Amino acid sequence: MLAADAAYTLSLNAQLGALQLQFEGQSASLPRLEQLQGRLTASASDAMTFDALPIDLPPFRLQASTRRDGSQWALSDIDLRTNGSHLTGAASVQAGSEPRVAIRLEGDQLDLDRWGLMPRPTRTGERRPMAAGRLLGNARDLLERLGDYRGELSLQLDTLSYADNALQDVTIEAQLDGHHLELAQLHVEQGQGAVSLQGGFDWSDTGLSGALDAQLDQFDLGQALAAFGQPGLGVLDGEIHLRLAPDTASIENTQLRYKAPEQDLRVQLGAASTAAGLALHGTAWHNQVPVQFDLQLGALPQLFREATWPVEGVLRSGDARLTLDGHVTDPLQLDAAVLQVSLEGQQLDRLDTLTDLDLPALGDYRLDGELRWEDQQLRLLGLDARWGESDLSGDVRLSLAGRPMLWANLHADTLRWRDLRPTTERARDKRQLFSDRSLKLEALQGRDAIVRFSADNLVVRDVPLNAVTLKAILDEGVLEIEPLRLELAGGTAHGTVRLNTRVPRPSGTARLSLTGARFSPVLRSADFPTVAQDSAAVIGGQLRLAVSGQSAEEMAAGADGPLELAMSGGQLDKVAIEVLGLDAGEASIAALINDAPTDMSCGYLRFDADAGIAHLERFFVSTQDSNLTGGGQIDLGTERLKLAFDAHAKDFSLLSGQAPIQLRGTLRDTRVEVVTDTLVARGLASVLAPSSRRRWRFCRGSNPVSAKVRAWAATRR
Questions:
Q1: Which 8-state DSSP code applies to residue 333?
Q2: How far apart are CA 500 and CA 490, in angstroms?
Q3: Cβ neighbours of residue 473 closer than 8 Å, sequence gap 6 or more
Q4: CB atoms near residue 334 (< 10 Å)
Q5: pTM for the whole thing?
Q6: Where are the alpha helices (H) located in 567-671, listed in sequence order?
Q7: Staple partner for 591: which of 37, 172, 623, 659, CB 3.0–4.6 Å?
Q8: Contact partners, residue 126, CB within 8 Å, separation at least 6
Q9: Which residues have C-beta within 8 Å of that of residue 197, sequence separation ≥ 6?
Q10: What are phi and psi of 522, to 5 degrees?
């Protein structure tokens, strides 16, 4: 053993936890073992983790011919088997002031998960996202550590697995010489896609320089990067040419095409570096709707320094224009962002297809605000929206951490209901009162929100509602509005609304009480100024309604509940003519009252709706010379009505000019007919409240009616 240059047989067995080492060979330099050759066998029956090593050891078995010559170790005829993987090849390590490593491996498959090289799953089974900034930081740290090494890497694998993903035909050919890395070839295939990279980099204390050229052929980014927190990405195709210098970075002749079929999204862009930074231009399609974009981003070195990245630009789709100005943090991960945004156009609902939303037709609109994204929260601060004759301001916050939650505090100086309805719905409104357009209440299912809203002037169908305040709470699709308070023409309305959208057919209830509303301001705002000056009526009432359905039409068709209104004061003739939209010559209001304005002392009506049929249970108006009664019904589903009204003179001398009338047709197209013997025979009397038989004596063929009524009747025969 002590003889110089004499080979000495050596057998070594060692154990460290589950790790077993065995060496059978010879040493020519005992006891220092500086000259060594033989066969090495290493194995581990269980996975092992070492704090000092950046990888984990899965259960494995390694056999290799081993040779040591001073500071150089070499493994040849490597045969490594672990969890179905089989790798062969050679490796060598030269220790010293400038360590050198050379590795040549080839095999059927390698699973990086089993070697602890990928993000670990959380308790819920989801993998923790690895932020882009952290990836870049890890890359910088790795490059710094590699600066003290020399080496070569040649790796060929049939399959490289990680995080439920598999890459095929993996080839890596690279050389490391101090602070220079030459990537001769990196090629991977993924199903029908592939990626190829070539380039070289130099790095030092002054910075990073070099070039990288990449070719992508239908490569699925979502599948490849799911483990890094980007599972929703699509397929990328094109080429990238990156050039780096110590203080600058540029992209040249880069053209990319991106497809995400599940989101119905396509993007085609060109990228080039400018003196100001990185310019992106191109077209994106979502739901087959094109969006042109022209963006100016920060310089690429800022991305590597993890600084905030400036973003400025314009996106256009049709007549809509969105401008952005701000910055993002960790752009590849979009960890945070602060952007001033401005959206303007001619009709907001033209963006419905693009945005997958049911937007109102706001006419010429403009929306401004500050958009913030941080800690899984999206905030829109200082919202200022203006369209038509309406405006809206306030703050909105949406939390996406866990179950989405929306908070909003909104205020409007003036908000008109007609400004919120699409043009097509406005056209339908000319034919029907209740729209058959789906309210899309399913969008509320599973959602949570708290919204506070106030308006100085809310106008619904030309009726002004002043000082409106409400609080709406949405709890997994159940909407409750309470309190709801409205000031209407000097009066006050209080109410509550509850709507359940969890069920297949949404259903809900509404309660509203009104006290002390003056009729005159309502008429004046509704463009009836001549009526307003004579109508000093005061209105009160209450509504209790139960509805169900997917549209206003369906809800009306199945409505249940009472509506009561009481009014005092005012003048009957102008109210009936103008408010009901009737022409004085055709309506023959004189059939009920005298031609002169008639003062009302009080009035009362009550509708009871049952399965969409609203029965006029009570109708009574007291004027200075008559009492008016009525009855009938309105089918809210078909919007057809059949109502009749009669006058009971307080003075027998006034009866000669009066005759019953009926209203027929639809709520949008109401016809007025003077009651004749024929109409009575058809059963009109059955819808009128019981009264003296005397009131039916004024049909044609009995007592004469006024000349106006006869003239009107002659034109309608």
A1: T
A2: 33
A3: 449, 450, 479, 480, 481
A4: 12
A5: 0.63
A6: 572-574, 584-587
A7: 659
A8: none
A9: 183, 185, 186, 187, 212, 213, 214
A10: -65, -45
